[in-house]
Design brief:
heterodimer, A: about 150 residues, mainly alpha, 6 helices, about 75% helix, about 0% strand, B: about 140 residues, 2 domains
Chain lengths: ~150, ~140
């Protein structure tokens, strides 16, 4: 197994477990409140990260990219709430937003000139479709589910 | 319904916007991970999302539900997500974003599996199909 697969597996496992916490949490508080408490969780982690690492040596442009990355992720959460509050069916909207890796693939092939092989394209297409299909929960649904990476 | 009166529904704009913002996050993570370590990326990510969280808090007029269990699951959720994101940034150092983003986007495989085992939720046919495609895609992309 390649290194990257192992790291990706860590993300899949922890984000997957998070999905369960999200379900359990939104059974008790509103989805919006959940985002606030999740942010508190991120802040809890911050001193631990800071103990092991500093931002010293990073260029201003890299720091900006990292900050903007965090911001657009937050805006993504906000857009999903706005979408659900405007009468979207969660069973349609959530799988639709789960297609976000498609957007990453498009941006990476255009701006970073990434060139996946034919076989990799097949894998990418199947993975994107699988992500959306796995997020499908038929109506009636409970509180809108959050997909926060 | 008269087709000439059909409007692109507002919710659809927001769904597409959400998809775009998250996709942009995936892309910017790759750009940043080339020179920043996963720990540094996660620090910046957290600081970057704070203004949006504060904006949401203002929009909610500071009315946040304070059920104990909800708070515990929320904070746990943030910690677990943050640690998982370190894996995502680490994977991006060795592999293209066009491969890492779709693979890590398969995380609902585990959520659906755990919900089935622990919460005794039933899998629907679409999710079963998704599980199958997820496995095939992982095998293909690990070759």
């Amino acid at each position: 197994m390649n290194h990257w697969m192992l790291y990706a597996a860590v993300a899949i496992v922890l984000w997957g477990v998070n999905g369960l916490f999200m379900k359990l949490g939104t059974n008790r508080v509103s989805a919006r409140s959940m985002v606030i408490w999740v942010t508190v969780g991120f802040l809890v982690l911050l001193p631990l990260l800071w103990k092991e690492s500093t931002l010293a040596g990073l260029s201003t442009s890299v720091i900006s990219v990292g900050l903007i990355a965090g911001m657009v992720n937050g805006l993504g959460n906000w857009a999903v709430f706005a979408c659900l509050e405007r009468g979207a069916k969660a069973s349609v909207a959530i799988p639709l937003t789960a297609l976000y890796p498609l957007c990453t693939v498009i941006l990476a092939t255009i701006f970073l000139k990434e060139r996946p092989s034919a076989l990799q394209w097949l894998g990418i297409a199947l993975a994107v479709a699988a992500g959306a299909m796995l997020s499908y929960e038929p109506p009636p649904v409970r509180a809108p589910e959050e997909r926060v990476p | 319904m008269q087709t000439e009166n059909w409007h692109f529904p507002a919710w659809l704009w927001f769904a597409i916007l959400g998809m775009f913002w998250w996709g942009l996050w995936g892309f910017l993570s790759k750009v940043g991970s080339v020179s920043a370590s996963p720990l540094q990326m996660q620090i910046l990510f957290t600081l970057g999302m704070l203004p949006v969280a504060v904006g949401m808090l203002l929009q909610m007029r500071w009315k946040v539900d304070r059920n104990r269990g909800g708070i515990a699951y929320g904070i746990l959720s943030g910690v677990v997500t943050g640690l998982g994101t370190l894996g995502y940034y680490a994977a991006l150092r060795d592999q293209d974003a066009s491969v890492v983003a779709p693979v890590t986007g398969l995380f609902p495989v585990l959520t659906v599996g755990l919900a089935f085992v622990i919460l005794r939720e039933r899998l629907n046919k679409v999710q079963m199909g998704g599980m199958l495609l997820a496995l095939v895609s992982i095998v293909i992309l690990s070759i």
